[in-house]
Amino acid sequence: MKSRMLGSGLLAGLSLLTVVMASPVEARNTSSNPYRTPCHDDRIRLCSTASPGKAGSCLKKHINELSPACKAQVKKK
User: Fold this and answer.
1) Domain residues for 24?
2) Do 43 and 67 contact (CB within 8 A), yes or no?
3) How many domains does the chain have?
């Protein structure tokens, strides 16, 4: 009986942990996230191998392949 209660508690704890851990990931993946830049997806798609300081120049090289929002952002700079 004691092991059954321990198993139920462990299962409930793991379920709660899964929900808590999944929530921030889902928040980062939504397009309404205010911290995500317009070029995030384009940078991943086109410039994932660029070194940290070179992403901007990489995006400029791919200007015709960028999303409209990213293209506008790159043209501002």
Assistant:
1) 1-35
2) no
3) 2
